[in-house]
Design a protein that fits this description.
single chain, mainly beta, Porin, 16-stranded antiparallel sheet, 2 helices, DUF1302
Length: about 400
């Protein structure tokens, strides 16, 4: 129930202001908040927003259709957005602190294994944590010929927030977080045939890779990777079937360019020391390429009861090809299905009831990374939200 202190927490706490630099208005925020760039829809694994804020993975597992903004955890930072011209926007951020992703601890319902992190009855050494927060710059261009569409360019440097979770050392195991990851990204948005189409393309250096144990420097394998997401959103108005509806779909892909550090620890075909003498997908050996797809459909019926709107959100995703070369990037065959019903009363009270089901490529966990632990973690969750 508790992660750090009470089960309630303040998400955002910042001061904001606006001033003009010449003819350019600049909006500034200082304090605890989250900034998410790029166009990724379902999470940020292959998006420009990867590791831009600590991610509440427990919330993401309980709500698989959540966006990166919904699962981002705020940190102390300063961010600014300058409207240089009607077409050009420049944004920047600098974070004063580093914080890790909030992952399910060993012994909890969503834990992948009991020995992970600070789980019970396991010898733990202090984690090798990040030291620096994020620094980043983005430019977004909205030229007239794009008819409302945009181009974006992004440059980020950060310490990783996703650990190599169980690096073996003399004292037992420990988590280790890779420092100095660099990301260069491009994005584009445009409406095509009534569909809002967006895409991210990012190149990452010093990216932590799928590893077996630490090297002499305490880190796993690292390398250069290429990532892309393409998504589309379609909206419908009133019809004989529903009052309104939305369909969102996204394809994500990652590609290993090269391994640059600690190649002996990289879990891939031809490296028997890591359990990957052959191309064993079920054992979690990395592929050169990884593909995933997800879709969410939400029909809405307004005024089903006086003051009450009802919706039936459905989400499905599958990692359909390959095991990601990146650390925690995804494994082939993993599927998620979420079906729910939601009621919004008086535009203030929201009641959600959702059932989530998981399916891995193998129903056995023994030695198989692509099997359990989530096959037996189907769950039914009720949520109440109130705005005031």
């Amino acid at each position: 129930r508790y992660y750090h202190g009470p089960s309630g927490e303040v998400l955002d706490a910042y001061i904001s202001g606006r001033f003009d630099l010449g003819s350019a208005p600049i909006d500034v925020r200082l304090g605890k908040h989250a900034v998410i760039w790029g166009e990724g829809l379902f999470g940020s694994t292959n998006a420009i927003s990867y590791s831009q804020a600590p991610n509440d993975a427990r919330k993401a597992l309980a709500n698989p259709a959540a966006t990166a903004k919904e699962t981002a955890l705020a940190t102390k930072q300063v961010s600014a957005v300058a409207q240089v011209t009607d077409e050009l926007t420049i944004a920047g951020l600098y974070s004063f602190e580093w914080a890790p992703n909030r992952l399910p601890e060993g012994g909890t319902f969503f834990a992948a294994a009991d020995f992970l992190f600070d789980g019970p009855n396991v010898g733990r050494a202090p984690a090798v944590e990040g030291e620096k927060g994020d620094i980043g710059l983005s430019l977004r261009w909205k030229p007239e010929f794009m008819d409302g569409g945009t181009f974006g360019a992004y440059l980020r440097r950060f310490d990783e927030k996703q650990p190599w979770p169980a690096q073996r050392v003399a004292a037992g195991t420990r988590s280790a977080y890779a420092p100095d990851v660099e990301l260069l990204g491009l994005s584009m948005t445009r409406v095509v045939g009534g569909i809002s189409v967006s895409s991210d393309l990012s190149y990452r250096r010093n990216m932590p890779l799928n590893s077996a144990g630490p090297s002499a420097d305490g880190m796993g394998a690292r390398g250069e990777t290429l990532h892309a997401v393409v998504n589309g959103v379609k909206l419908w108005g009133n019809s004989s079937w529903f009052s309104s509806a939305s369909l969102a779909a996204e394809v994500g892909v990652s590609h290993l360019v090269k391994v640059t550090d600690n190649a002996a620890n990289f879990r891939t075909k031809g490296n028997p020391a890591t359990g990957c003498a052959t191309d064993d997908t079920l054992a979690g050996c990395s592929s050169k390429n990884f593909w995933t797809v997800g879709a969410a459909f939400t029909p809405v019926w307004q005024q089903t009861l006086p003051g009450v709107d009802v919706s039936l959100p459905v989400f499905y995703s599958i990692n359909f090809k390959g095991n990601a070369a990146t650390n925690g990037g995804g494994n082939e065959g993993f599927q998620v299905l979420k079906v729910g019903i939601s009621a919004l009363a008086d535009s203030k009270h929201k009641f959600d009831l959702a059932a989530t089901f998981y399916k891995a490529k193998s129903d056995s966990q023994r030695g198989l990374i692509n099997g359990a632990p989530y096959d037996d973690k189907a769950n039914l969750v009720f949520t109440y939200l109130v705005s005031f």
